[in-house]
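INTERNAL AUDIT FORM
Audit reference: QA-55
Scope: verify that the stored structure record matches its stored sequence.
Auditor: D.O.
Record contents follow.
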Amino acid sequence: MSGGPATGVTGARASGAEGTRAAPGVDASGGIAPSLDELNALMSLAIARGRVRHGTSGLRAQATSALRGRGMEYAESRAYAIGDDARHIDWRLTARSGKPHTKLYQAERERLSLLLVDTAPALYFGTRVRFKSVQAARAGAIAAWRAVADGDRVAALRGSEQEPPVPAAGGVRGALRVLDALVRWYERPPGDDAGLAVGLGHAARLLRSGSRLLVLADPASAAAVPAERWAAVAARHQVVAVLLTDPLEMSPPRAALSFASGGPGRGGRLELDLGDAAQRRRWDGAFADAVAFTVATLAARGVRAVALSTDASSDAWLAAAEGPH
């Protein structure tokens, strides 16, 4: 969403956060910057949305990671197949169903769930409920709590050549480390942001076989990463991209709008008449059309991509991210 006729619009969006107000009835500080208490409180929502895994018997099984092996922790039972170890037959289920079943166990090696966080200036903006940066922090918190519930180790990083990644850890300690970083990174734009492509390069070096990668990004940041870079990572790992949007970007009123421009303290204004057909087409091309194109492009490269609006429930991305691809 850069270059061409959209350049002026994109610049106004990135620098106009100082004049944006949270929606009525919403705590302004909570909508503009995330808090640790706010992200901690999302633990119950994340766990409540956890999927219940089923074996072919249809019986409820423990919610575990997608890795399956012969570790020590029971995962689920399924119909016996030729070649299964007879020592792992589930005799109780076999007796109840009248058909042989075998037990599967969770792999002993813990999976890594890695959060890659975009800190582009365009995220520190919002017109409904909360800033896009706050929604990104909330979506990241839900992902962290879900990863912990799955028994994963969780880590996080952003596009920086100076700040090291949040080291991987399991349990509540791992989640809290990530939440603390999300609060710091999304309180205000970091001064050393080097871009999402840099972060993706760092992430590729940290990921191991079977890892999961969640990317929280502005759509323009995701679109700026070469498609082959996405494809290379998605070929080896499960990759989900949550693209943060705002209702004003996706469906603005057909009216004249005024935006702050030129950065904090410079006092510039940009006037746009979105009732004019030509300007409306330019706006839609910079935002709604560009988001749809980016989602489709990422999907074609093996990335599960979903747009998440600032006024949506912060766990709304889960169904699209975990559904059939």
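Auditor finding: record pair retrieved intact. Residues 68-106 form one domain.
Action required: none
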